[in-house]
Every structure is written in structure tokens, then in C-alpha cells.
């Protein structure tokens, strides 16, 4: 399936030298998706979202601490981006018949323009995410920075092309992101512990567990199996050890972070909605 957004020839010519240097052969075909998405998210984060938030939430947003405003702006971009990426990835996975016909070698070395389009949008977002996390580590934390580095590496390696098939499947990690960000915004909007937050929390746990833990682990195992087949294929195109290692390390980092965040998420949600015990009630009464 072709990329439905044709690349401009001028941009292809401009990015070819960089692509040859980095051995990312299909990168010039999708630079027109990476650069505009990076630019758009930068504009949203620095200008449009702060402007809109001041007008939509005049009693809340201006009174937030600078660190919280930074997190608010970034989470708003993350919310919008995840909706776009989820829609694009699900559409291509469903419609791209070339992907459906791929065997193990195709899933490791194959490429379709439509999959590259989604990876281009993802790379633009993760490039922006890396810049924001690196510039605000004290706000977003080292875990978010590690996630941005690993996700960008997986996205860019898809332009070699390498595991372009699986890179698109891993984009579906973002299915849980809208619920995660809505949960955070509910806290800031005075909806902590509300029924709406409980419903959103259930959806968050369900989508996070299904997309990142179950789906992500299943896709990782399948990817490792296909890599091994590519290694052993006689007369085929072997996987360079450094390339397999880079992809495996990046993907494993994402998987470890997902399991770690899931544990923290369960703990946080339990604190939000657990009723205090009788002993706690009595203690509170005495105090």
C-alpha cells in the first residue's frame, strides 16, 4: 500500500545525503511527514495549547505552578498525537494487504509506503518528545526520557527499513495514552476520585494492560522469532548483530518501562479509590 501523502521531490533530494549517512534508505520518502509533525507539535506545545488553556480554563491554568504548566502542555500534545497515531496505525493495519501477505523475512526487511507514513508521524512525535523530555528532565523524569530515546530509535530503524512491520504494531502502545492523559487532567480539574475518573481509570488499566503488556509482549516474541529466522536463512539477507541488538535493546527498554509504569499505575489508582478502613476512620476521628 502506497503512502497516501506523496513526498515532494525537493525534500527527497535534500534529505538523501543524511539518509545515506545513517543508512536509512526510506527516510527521504517520509521526511515530509516527520518534519511537519515535529514542527506542529512544537508549535502546539509552545504557543497554541498555552493560549487555548488560558481561555478555556481561566481559573485553573494561570494558577498552576510552572512545572505543572510544562507537564500540562506536554500532556495535551501527547493526547492529540496519540489519537492521530492510533487512528493512522489501525487504518493501515486493516487496509494494507501487502502487510497481511508478509512472511518472516518480509516482517523483518519488508516495507510499505503506508506503514512508513505512520512511522514518519511517530518519528516526528518522538523527536519532539525527546527534545521536550531532555529539556525538562526534572518535570518528566528520566523514565520518560528513556522512553523517548527508545521509541525514536525504533521508529528511525524502521526506515532502514528494518522491522517496519513491527514498528507499526508497536505504535498501538499509544492506545492507552489518551486515558492516561485524561486521568492526569482530571486531577488538575478537581475531579480526583469522581465516578468519571473511576470509569476512565478502568479503561486506562484495560487498554494499558491489553496494548502494552499483552499485545506488546506477543509482538516482541514474534519479532524475535522472525529475527532468528532471518539470521538462519540460507542465501538470504542476514540481520547484522549490531542492528538486531540496537532494536532489541530499545524494544526491551520500552517493555520494562511499560511493566514498571503499570505497577505504579495500579498503586496510584488504588490510593485514589480505596475506602479508608474502620481503623483509619477511628484514627481520623480521634485526631
From TrEMBL:
Transmembrane intervals: 76-96, 108-128, 198-218, 242-262
Record's keyword terms, sorted: Membrane, Transmembrane, Transmembrane helix
Principal subcellular localisation of the protein: membrane
Membrane topology: Multi-pass membrane protein
The TLC domain, residue ranges: 67-274
Localization: Membrane
Entry GO terms, CC: endoplasmic reticulum; membrane
PROSITE patterns reported in the protein's UniProt record: TLC
InterPro entries on file: TLC-dom, TLCD
Cited Pfam families: TRAM_LAG1_CLN8
Superkingdom of the organism of origin: Eukaryota
UniProt-listed GO biological process terms: lipid homeostasis
Name of this protein: TLC domain-containing protein
Amino acid at each position: 500500500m502506497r503512502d497516501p501523502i506523496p513526498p515532494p521531490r525537493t525534500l527527497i533530494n535534500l534529505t538523501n545525503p543524511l539518509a545515506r549517512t545513517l543508512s536509512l534508505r526510506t527516510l527521504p520518502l517520509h521526511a515530509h511527514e516527520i518534519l511537519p509533525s515535529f514542527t506542529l507539535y512544537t508549535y502546539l506545545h509552545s504557543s497554541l495549547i498555552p493560549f487555548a488553556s488560558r481561555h478555556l480554563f481561566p481559573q485553573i491554568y494561570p494558577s498552576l505552578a510552572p512545572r505543572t504548566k510544562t507537564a500540562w502542555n506536554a500532556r495535551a500534545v501527547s493526547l492529540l498525537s496519540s489519537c492521530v497515531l492510533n487512528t493512522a496505525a489501525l487504518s493501515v493495519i486493516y487496509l494494507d494487504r501487502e502487510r497481511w501477505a508478509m512472511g518472516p523475512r518480509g516482517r523483518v526487511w519488508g516495507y510499505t509506503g503506508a506503514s512508513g507514513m505512520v512511522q514518519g508521524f511517530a518519528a516526528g512525535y518522538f523527536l519532539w518528545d525527546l527534545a521536550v523530555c531532555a529539556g525538562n528532565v526534572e518535570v518528566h523524569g528520566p523514565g520518560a526520557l528513556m522512553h523517548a530515546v527508545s521509541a525514536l530509535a525504533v521508529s528511525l530503524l524502521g526506515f532502514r527499513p528494518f522491522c517496519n512491520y513491527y514498528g507499526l504494531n508497536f505504535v498501538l502502545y499509544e492506545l492507552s495514552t489518551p486515558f492516561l492523559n485524561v486521568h492526569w487532567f482530571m486531577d488538575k480539574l478537581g475531579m480526583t476520585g469522581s465516578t468519571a475518573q473511576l470509569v476512565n481509570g478502568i479503561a486506562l488499566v484495560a487498554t494499558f494492560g491489553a496494548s502494552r503488556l499483552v499485545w506488546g509482549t506477543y509482538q516482541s516474541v514474534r519479532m524475535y522469532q522472525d529475527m532468528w529466522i532471518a539470521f538462519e536463512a540460507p542465501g538470504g539477507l542476514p540481520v547484522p548483530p549490531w542492528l538486531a541488538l540496537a532494536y532489541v535493546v530499545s524494544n526491551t527498554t520500552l517493555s520494562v518501562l511499560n511493566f514498571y509504569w503499570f505497577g505504579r499505575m495500579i498503586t496510584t489508582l488504588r490510593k485514589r479509590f480505596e475506602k479508608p478502613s474502620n481503623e483509619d476512620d477511628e484514627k481520623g476521628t480521634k485526631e
